[in-house]
Amino acid sequence: MKLLAGLLPFFLSALGCCRTGYLRLDLKISPISNISGELLLGRWSPLLNGIALASQPAGSVSFINMVNNLKGDVGRGYYLGILMGTPAQKMNILVDTGSSNFAVAGAPSSNVETFFNPKLSTSYKPLGLDVTVRYTQGSWEGKLGLDVISMPEGLNGTVTINIATILQSEDFFLPGIKWQGILGLAYRQLAKPSSSIEPFFDSLIRQLVIANVFSLQMCGAGLSLSTEEQSMPVQGSLILGGIEPSLSQGDTWYTPIVEEWYYQIEVLKLEVGGQNLNLDCTEYNTDKAIVDSGTTLLRLPVNVFLAVVMSIKESSQVEAFADGFWSGSQLACWPQGSKPWSFFPKISIYLRGENSTQSFRITILPQLYIQPMEDIGTVMECYRFGISPSSSGLVLGATVMEGFYVVFDRAQKRVGFAASSCAVVDDVSVSEIAGPFSATDVSSNCFRERPMTQPALWIISYSLIALCSITLLVSIILLVVPCGQRNGNGLTDDSSLIRNRWK
C-alpha cells in the first residue's frame, strides 16, 4: 500500500489537480506487497520523461553509491575520485559544469604531485592532437588521447573517454588543492580543440545508455576556508543519469536552457532585501547568464554588481565597509562568537519558468554570500564578500549552487532548482525557492541579441579565411601575369600602391 500511496501524487497531477512542474515520485517497496514496484515503474516510465529515480530497485542505474561521492575544497571546487587507465591510476577530478573537456595533470608541477602517466597505461591511445583551454582564471595546454576510466562511487562499468593530459598550465592548479584534473560537464560546443571531441558525459550516455540528465549537490554552505576546517573536506553528490529525491526539499522548479553550450539560462530580475533593483532585464543577461559549478562566487555584470552593492549598503545594519571588502581584496571581521549574517539582506534571483509568462525565485541568505574565512587568534572572525563583478556575464557559481540541489535535465533542455537538504547553517535553512510569479511585466526576450555560439564564430572565421585566400590569389595573379600595355594613369605590378599593400 505504501507503493500505491507513493504513486498518488502522479495520478492527481494527471487529473490536473496539482501544479504542473517537477513530479517527485518516492517509490517505497513494501515487503508485504505482491505488486512489483519495478513493474509499476516500468509501466509509468514513459510519463516520467525518461528521468530515472534513485529508488529504482533494479536496472543499469543505481544512485545509492553516488550519494556523497564528491569531496570539496571550500572555495576551490568539488572533486570526484576516478580510476584511469590500465592498471588504474586514481585521480581526483574537479566537477565543472562550465567547460567540456576532461583533462588531468600529465606532469608534476609546483602545486601537483600526483599525476596521470599515460606511458604506464596499456589501454592509452594518443590522438596526436594538441589542446589549449583558457578559463576566466587560469589556462592549460596538453595532448589528447583515449583511455578507459571507472568511478568507484559512480556508474557501474568502464567507459572509454577523451582525455587531455595537461603538460603546461598557468594559474590553474591552485596551492593546496586536492584535485589533479577537471571534468567538464557542459555541451560539446565548448570542447577543445573542436566540437568533434566527445565530452565525458556524452560518452557515458552513449556507452552506458543512461538518461541524458545529471544532478549536483554541493554541501559547503557556511563552512570556513580556514586551514583547520579544510583538513576535513566537505561533501557533495554528483548523480549521473538521474535524480536523488533525498538530496532536495520541496518542489523542483525548472528554467529553460537558452543555448546548448554553457548551461545558459534567462534571469528576469534581482531583489535585495525584497526590493527590486529595477534594472532592465537585458542587464542581467549581458553576454550570458550561466550555471557553473567551477566558479566559486556569484558573478554579476558590472552594472548589476554595482546596483547590488549599493542596495546592500542601504539595507544592511552594519557600519560602512572599506571598498576593498566589496571588491574582494579585504576581509571584514567581527568579535569571536558573533555572527554578522543577521545584519545583511536576502538576495533573490528570478528565473524564467517553463511557461514563459511565469517566473520563479531562488533566494540566498547572507550565510551563502558572507563567507567565513579565517579566525584571527581568539579575538576576531573574518568574512569575505561572495559576490564579484564580471565582464563575461552573470554566473551562478558555488555561492548560489551550495544552497540548491541543481538538476541539469539536458533531455528536456532545462535546469531545475530545489532547496538543498544540506543547505543548513546553525539549524537555519539558507536557501529558499518560491513561485510561480507573473512575468508579464518583464520583456519576453531579455537578450540584447541572440548569443553567438562558438560554432557560429568558426563559420565566420573560416569564411573570412576563404575570402582572404581568394583576395591573395587574385593579387598574386595580378603580380605575376605581365600587362600587355600600360597607360599614364594606370597601376602596374611596379606601382607603389601594390608594394605598400603587401609590404
Word description of this protein:
This protein has 503 residues and is of the alpha+beta class. Helices cover 19% and strands 34% of the residues. It is built from eleven helices and 31 strands. The strands form seven sheets. A six-stranded mixed β-barrel has the order 3-4-9-5-8-7. The protein is globular and about 65 Å long. The termini are far apart. Residues 1-50, 54-60 and 483-503 have low confidence and may be disordered.
Task: Give the tags.
about 500 residues, six-stranded mixed barrel, five-stranded antiparallel beta sheet, 11 helices, about 35% strand, disordered C terminus
Strand order of the largest sheet: 3-4-9-5-8-7
The percent of residues in helical segments reads 10-25%
Total of DSSP H or I helical runs spanning 4+ residues: 11
**Secondary-structure class:** alpha+beta
Radius of gyration equals 26 Å
- How would a textbook summarize the main sheet? 6 strands, mixed, barrel
Q: Roughly how many Å apart are the termini?
A: 86 Å
Number of strands: 31
**Which percent range describes the beta-strand content?**
25-35%
General shape: globular
The unreliable regions are: 1-50, 54-60, 483-503
| Average of pLDDT | 82
